[in-house]
Here is the input.
Amino acid sequence: MPFSGAETRTARDSGLFAALFEHALDGVLIANDDRKYVDANPAACDLIGRPRDQILGHGIEEFFDLEQDEPVPEAWDAFQREGAQFGTCRVRRPDGIVRYAGFRARANFLPGLHLSILRDITDKIETRNALDAKNRELEAANLQLARSNAELMHFAYAVGHDLKAPLRSVASFAQLLSKRLDGADGEIQEFVTYIVDGVRRMNTFLEDMLAYSQAAHHADTVRRIAADVVLQWAVMNLRSAIDQAVAEVTHDPLPEIMADQGHMAQLFQNLIGNALKYRSAAPPRIHVSATPGEGEWTFSVQDNGIGIAPDQHERIFGLFKRLHGPDVPGTGLGLALCKRIVENHGGRIWVESAVDRGSKFCFTIPA
Ligand code: ADP
Here is the structure.
């Protein structure tokens, strides 16, 4: 369909329009009622990758694909009805170079003439596409990681569970042996003691590992619980250690929270248990409190124990990270478990401490 020179002249009548048209950095295209171009400025020719004479008289659909894959004729009808349109499109260039444009169009800006302004947004779209691809990759990697993690936890649980029975046999036979050997060679008795001690340690390790691998599942067991009741449970479980250390455990009024009761009790038990284990020469004084914050409660378990050097504050929450040798019993799993429990509840855990200044373990639980 030939384009009409008269239409173009009408559009260019104004000198200001002509100057803007020629020098604009954005592409300007003018189409007639038949969806054929009747004018194109240099920036539009550059974007489409063709000289003017290969654009004028040609239809819109020869050069652009709308991003939503909407057929041009339907989009055009909507444009005519609504009087304006904006969106993004992919430019079809003869050299095969991919270009994207953002456009704004006005129908009948002069009778029978329709104006579109186009801006090259190729960089933006390519960055967005690259980011989308990266995000998809990340999501897939995260999913894979979560799966491997779940499998690993399941494996740890199965190993822990299956090792407990043979370990119980070793413990009972070692004890039997010890009874039979009553009065026998002191050295043999000593060896048996080592076996029993080794079995006891291994059992503690398996218990901790089982607790750690089980701490992953709690979503369906979260409910409103009274933190002071849970704290009492933990204190009850630690009663003999508390009495032995002549320790005093006190607390402020504690709130009700949405949490897994068993895991919260385990959390308090580990923190108070550590406060007893890492005590200084003074009788242990342990105080539990909770302060409200924005959308969360911050709990703290403060002790007057040996304290922790600041450069170890993060490290101690890692798996198997201990600051003590085998002379102090422990597996290095206690604080890792605390961290896991708190993070599963959507909270954070940290310690404020210095050597010989006691420690204050803090954790948050969303309100
Ligand atoms: P462990 O089985 O060794 O007690 P944890 O994960 O519970 O393992 O703790 C990691 C390390 O953090 C401990 O080995 C100890 O050195 C240090 N720690 C934990 N709690 C306290 C505390 N209340 N006071 C001083 N040190 C502590």
